[in-house]
């Protein structure tokens, strides 16, 4: 039987949520479960209603994105987990291609390239992911900022549960914290250089409206993990991994 992939879409008053859901249910891979978690939404719920027969819909009190993603992972039944923000979209072959890569390479965590779109769905930056010459350069980048677009990530769902889920104490950088934890627990974070996600830039996105908080939380993450990452990089050099 084909592995099941659970796509978790956290949703809070987002006008683009129907586009995210449509892209999830349109996946070419046949064994997909779409879990939409309303984090206390009071707006745009009507955009979800047409999909009720094709998704698992969960409502909860507002607790932040991490709490919504965690709830979705708990309620999901898939072997693999993919996170899709309610303002982003997947290309139709996203799950099929990424899962194929992961199974071929024995990967428990993988991220990919992506395009950037605007509020009208126009692509303004193709293949926008940062590229790295080697694993050392990739890991070093973590010490100054998050190089991974969260909605390009797919993981073994059990991996997130083993690591204690996303940190709900971080309102904006819980994904950065999780990717750091994955790496520092010795899990190889694979990169598939294929553009499989459409990431939206718009005036309400957190990177714009709450930029100061993002920087504050990022500094906290650096304080928590950078010394361990430096030690891990030293270890990689010692064993000849560059």
UniProtKB/TrEMBL annotation:
List, in alphabetical order, the Gene Ontology terms for molecular function in this entry: transferase activity
Cross-referenced InterPro entries, in alphabetical order?
Glyco_trans_2-like, Glycosyltransf_2, Nucleotide-diphossugar_trans
Keyword Transferase listed: yes
Which keywords accompany this UniProt record?
Answer: Transferase
Quick check: keyword Transferase in the entry? yes
Domain (Glycosyltransferase 2-like): residue spans on this chain? 6-153
Domain of life where this protein originates: Bacteria
Q: What is this protein called?
A: Glycosyl transferase
Q: Which organism is it from?
A: Paenibacillus contaminans
């Amino acid at each position: 039987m084909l592995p099941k992939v659970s796509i978790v879409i956290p949703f809070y008053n987002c006008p683009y949520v129907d586009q995210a859901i449509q892209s999830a249910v349109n996946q070419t891979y046949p064994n997909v479960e779409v879990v939409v978690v309303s984090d206390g939404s009071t707006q745009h719920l009507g955009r979800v209603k047409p999909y009720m027969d094709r998704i698992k819909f969960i409502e909860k009190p507002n607790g932040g994105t991490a709490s919504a993603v965690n709830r979705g992972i708990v309620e999901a039944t898939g072997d693999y987990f993919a996170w899709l923000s309610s303002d982003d979209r997947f290309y139709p072959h996203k799950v099929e291609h990424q899962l194929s890569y992961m199974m071929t390479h024995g990967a428990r965590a993988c991220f990919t390239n992506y395009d950037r779109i605007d509020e009208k769905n126009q692509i303004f930056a193709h293949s926008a992911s940062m590229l790295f010459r080697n694993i050392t350069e990739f890991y070093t980048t973590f010490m100054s900022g998050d190089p991974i677009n969260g909605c390009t990530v797919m993981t073994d769902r059990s991996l997130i549960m083993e690591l204690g889920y996303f940190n709900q104490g971080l309102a904006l950088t819980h994904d950065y914290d999780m990717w750091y934890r994955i790496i520092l627990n010795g899990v190889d974070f694979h990169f598939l250089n294929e553009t499989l996600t459409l990431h939206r830039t718009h005036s309400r996105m957190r990177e714009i409206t709450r930029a100061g908080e993002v920087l504050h939380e990022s500094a906290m993450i650096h304080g928590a993990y950078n010394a361990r990452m430096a030690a891990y990089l030293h270890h990689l050099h010692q064993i000849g991994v560059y």
